[in-house]
Write a structure and sequence with these properties.
Length: about 300
């Protein structure tokens, strides 16, 4: 698979602080690529540089083999873009908005109704945008981005205002685009959202690339650990338990926390009531991909006993 976007050693500073710090990666043709990271990680700054809205301090970005800046028609025709917040005229109807953008881009008028239908707004085509909810405006923005069927679709936090139904419809729309051979780059702060969608992900943290690869690769890099929290009828010595079972054991008040690998779980559970020990209570916690991500992005500490 050849690359449709190449980002090479790109950096951008704001007020002396690096918003994007020496990023390099490629997006392959036909893939769904997700840019992940907490708020402030640098996703929008990177997307603004990729779409030619701002210039990097250093490094270069090529799209379909062409430098993004200075901006050429060939580059603009290569991608469609849904910014994080889109300025729309409240006095125009949904239909008028689509027709405005279609005229600008010389797109046949029938596409307007097609894309309004895709985002579920055909019934609202004669309604003014001023009365639209945040989610409806977001869907209208997506309709604008879908108008020109460019080979690359760039979406910045496209589901931020959408309810669960439309978030899931959005995923279907993206999958359909991929089947049509369109490459998709989308930014999100929510790993759960991209879990069943992205072919590859890049996780940014404080402007740097923390991880680049598949979700399976991320899982392999952070093998999920199991925490078995147990309370025995008669408290047990954690060091003795650790020696006997061959796993780490932490004392947590009346509870003991045993940390093991997934494949050790059943053996450990079978051993817990050996030698006359009796369990009073038990709780099993498996680390999810979402937790791995939140730990990377510094948004949540690992689960604590007091959350039981
Ligand atoms: P994200 O999209 O991941 O939430 P941003 O790219 O918006 O992150 O922001 C990255 C960093 O750059 C943040 O610290 C943000 O405050 C800063 N930043 C972004 N745009 C500007 C700007 N126009 N002026 C000053 N600082 C900015």
């Amino acid at each position: 698979m050849t690359s449709c976007v190449v980002v090479e050693h790109v950096s951008k500073k704001y007020n002396g602080k690096k918003a994007v710090n020496d990023l390099s990666f490629e997006i392959k043709r036909g893939e769904i690529f997700s840019l992940l990271g907490p708020n402030g990680a640098g996703k929008s700054t990177l997307i603004r540089m990729m779409t030619g809205l701002i210039q990097p301090d250093s490094g270069q970005i090529r799209m379909n083999g062409e430098q993004v800046l200075p901006f050429k028609k060939e580059v603009k025709r290569y991608f469609s873009f849904l910014p994080e917040t889109m300025s729309l005229y409240p006095n125009l109807t949904a239909g008028e908005t689509l027709r405005f953008f279609s005229r600008l881009q010389r797109i046949p008028r029938h596409r307007c109704e097609e894309v309004l239908d895709v985002v579920g707004l055909l019934g609202f085509k004669d309604k003014k945008i001023g009365g639209f909810s945040k989610g409806m405006r977001q869907r209208l923005g997506l309709a604008v981005a879908l108008l020109d069927e460019a080979p690359l679709l760039i979406l910045d936090e496209p589901t931020s205002g959408l309810d669960p139904y439309w978030s899931s419809r959005f995923k279907e729309i993206i999958r359909r685009k991929k089947r049509e051979g369109i490459s998709v780059l989308f930014a999100s702060h929510d790993l759960y959202e991209v879990e069943s969608l992205a072919d590859r992900i890049a996780i940014l943290n404080e402007g740097k690339l923390y991880y680049l690869g598949t979700l399976d690769g991320l899982k392999a890099r952070h093998p999920t650990e199991i925490r078995i929290r147990v309370r025995f009828e008669v408290p047990q010595d954690p060091d003795g338990l650790s020696r006997e079972l061959g796993v780490a054991v932490n004392r947590m008040g009346d509870w003991a926390e045993l940390i093991c690998r997934r494949e050790e779980k059943v053996r450990i559970l079978r051993s817990l009531e050996k030698g006359g020990r009796k369990l009073a209570d038990l709780h099993i916690h498996e680390t999810t991909l979402e937790e791995i991500y939140r730990t990377i992005s510094g948004r949540a500490p690992s689960p604590q006993m007091d959350k039981l």
